[in-house]
Amino acid sequence: MPLDVNPIIDRLCETFPAAFNRQTPKPLKIGVGEELMALAGEHPAFADWTRTQIRRAIKGYTRSFRYRKALAAGGSRYDLDGQPAGEVTPEQQALAQVPRKKAAGQPSSPAPSPAAPALSPAERQALFKEVMAMAIPGKLDITLKINQLPQAKPASPGTVLFAVQTDGRVVIVEMKNKPWNTLKKAAENYPQWVAAITGKLGDAIEGGFQLENPSVQVFEKKPKPDAAAPSTPTAPEPPVTAAPAPAPAMGYAQLTLKGRVTSKTEA
After folding, report:
1. How far apart are CA 68 and CA 127, in angstroms?
2. CB 121 within 8 A of CB 232
3. In which element (H, E) is residue 213 found?
4. Which of 82, 130, 179, 218 could form a disulfide with 186 if both were Cys (CB 3.0 to 4.6 A apart)?
5. What is the pLDDT of residues 31-77, one digit of tens each?
6. pTM of the full predicted structure?
7. CB 252 within 8 A of CB 265
């Protein structure tokens, strides 16, 4: 456990106020540390501390920002009685102005990296090839989210085919009847809902791609309470005879690599 030197520094300030002061420190004379360590276990104020503890306390005191500032200003050094005892040399002043190095184990701020120059198209293609040669294995899943039932066509006795358009691309989905019925029930039973359709990247088609082995998860969306609704009852409005306009189709594709999102497009 690191030694807390603050109690020792406080005792130094109480015992030798003419030499030690946290707020307005003065440069100490050369050799004052040896004088104080000789008092370890002897002086009543330092009976409970060892030479090593006192040495660490003096080190902490003289490494403080205020003490280094006083040392950088130059002038006289002082003994334990507050009497002048030597001068701060120009070399010692200059050394006190040098920023302190961080102790081992403390995180250091990395030096800013120089900005990379802009690459030409040919250089970018060469860089792509170099990076592709270092590719690692991964798993690519695609998730589509929709909030309305798409129009579907039978593709086989057990599947239907439909499409989702997202960000200028078309995704063709061939889905088994069971998950398709789940989508149909959501559209029938929930006023608002969203479905996540997850599958593998399939063959490319004109303007998009196919989604293979899709699975479905459906979530009901609860409408948010209208904060602006009046607190007093109002007369019922006449029934609306015209059918409301359908909500616009929504879908977006999300690419994941081993569970981490690597890119996302939204329509």
Report:
1. 51
2. no
3. strand 208-220
4. 218
5. 988 888 888 877 888 888 899 998 999 999 999 999 999 999 989 99
6. 0.42
7. yes
